[in-house]
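Help wanted!
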Amino acid sequence: VDEAARAACDEHQLRLTKPAGSLGELENVAAKLSAIAGTFPPPLPEPAALAVFCGDHGVHAQGVSPWPQAVTTQMVLNVLAGGAMTSVLARGVGAEVAVIDVGVAQDLPQTPGLMHRKVAAGTADMTLGPAMTQEQCRQAIEVGIDVARDLVAQGNRLLATGDLGIANTTPSAALVAVFTQTPARVVTGRGTGIDDAMLAHKISVVERAIEVNDATADQPLAALAAVGGFEHAALVGFLLGAAALRTPVVLDGVIAASAALVAARLSPPAVDYWFAGHVSAEPASRLAVADLELRPLLDLDLRLGEGSGAVLAIPLVQGAARVVREGATFESAGVAGRDE
Amino acid sequence: VDEAARAACDEHQLRLTKPAGSLGELENVAAKLSAIAGTFPPPLPEPAALAVFCGDHGVHAQGVSPWPQAVTTQMVLNVLAGGAMTSVLARGVGAEVAVIDVGVAQDLPQTPGLMHRKVAAGTADMTLGPAMTQEQCRQAIEVGIDVARDLVAQGNRLLATGDLGIANTTPSAALVAVFTQTPARVVTGRGTGIDDAMLAHKISVVERAIEVNDATADQPLAALAAVGGFEHAALVGFLLGAAALRTPVVLDGVIAASAALVAARLSPPAVDYWFAGHVSAEPASRLAVADLELRPLLDLDLRLGEGSGAVLAIPLVQGAARVVREGATFESAGVAGRDE
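Answered by r_m:
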């Protein structure tokens, strides 16, 4: 990113008709948008598009989720029909929604808005071996890169991450455990809502997956293939692709953050292109966001996924850019400065 | 508010295609909107209008702010011209901005969008006696009631509070000290940005104002007149007026929250109509919001005032309503429930 453009934004913000620093984190957002764009003022990050990457998980067979696996397909169709919560929220903020089948177990129909990029019909059970082969993982990463490129080519200037996949908080917890070197019992959460017994079981599943595959952070691609999911791999590509295209991305919750940890390990400077839309109720979310040294824009106990938290943060990112583009300076507005 | 409508919303949210409770605080917002409207689903809280109440403060003479008092007038004109940060942010979220002179020291020109309701040319110095007479305070409250009524009559379905007034964090701190029974040194903050010496002085000014006027929470109107400002009194009326009209209000930072403490003392059920848009960097903001038992929607270290934090929270409130109005249910979308 362009540190001179960031500095130019910071300098300009001192001249806007407000006390220095009084827009708090919004000022950091504006400066980061400038650094990303390589220019001041930054372009308005509009229009925005949400990419919802969808996949199934072999580890579902271990009983880590109370939801049947078929719900992944049903929810994909619900998003496409505009009835899912993330669809509703995206409509509210004027964001386009792209849905990508990167690894759903069932076959999906041809539907407007659905991109068919299935690598396989769900991952393998990661407690028995790698969830993906290295080749499958590479293919899923490429899907994410392609989607970022397509959405930017279509004129989008802000991207948001979304995901769908029953049981996908389990691989997310495994990735966060590996990449932040935190015990599984600390990072593993209740996902969509499980009881104490299922949580204890889920923790043991995460531990087993990491151990069986000997997943370690110093071999990030191997770890991603071993304990990740197709949505996670696609998100890694999406995040790196967006960074390569100098396009800002708003991260949703724990699935996005776990993928971001992998992407940051592969390319540390890419973090400069990402905003943490929110911190979710999953413990791994806060850990991952802190590890990435990002500050979440929202903290509302969301734990839905689908991109819902990222979409809710879009107006904040756009507002930050608008302020530095349209706000009056002391000079232009004829407002006196501080006495000093 | 209508608890049956709140319960109907909560019940409906269990049927939406998402894990129970997974939209966190957004679900509480939706249920509260239902309770306010007395119906489920609640109407979309659109369009939204921001009311910026403007006044000057006699206590400015005590040297509690680094900014000249004339900046109040200059900033009023800046808001009206659309260049102030809050104007820019309001434009971004499609909110109308109404500016009300309820007590600016200087005369203001006839300008579109400016309502001339000046009660007096600034308050008196509260360290020497009451800031307002009881009659002035009553008049300012009426201005707020009138503005709420006018904005609702014009079709607005969500209101947001704003304020302008150099030195107005000083009366805000005094009000929060009185109404939360907290020492001045705890509630008093750096406002638009002051150094340690000026902060120590500001604390002593707040202490003196409370002591000189013998301001106590059990005489709320007398305390408001004694250590409040014209914007504060108008906000009290605005908040009570909106509640009487069953219209939700998003509170900005410490000025709004301090006025809300007074309004809540006068009419405790009115709190059910308010949302805390954010918690600001001023210590009194967090205290007041906690005392009101509201959960702030944003926590971004904003300390600008003008309504900026309230405006930023508007899309969250609107999103919450949209979800319960437009989201698909398990039944309507053909999505399976949990296995249990």
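OP: Thanks! One thing I noticed: Residues 48-316 of chain A form a domain with the Rossmann fold fold (CATH 3.40.50.10210).
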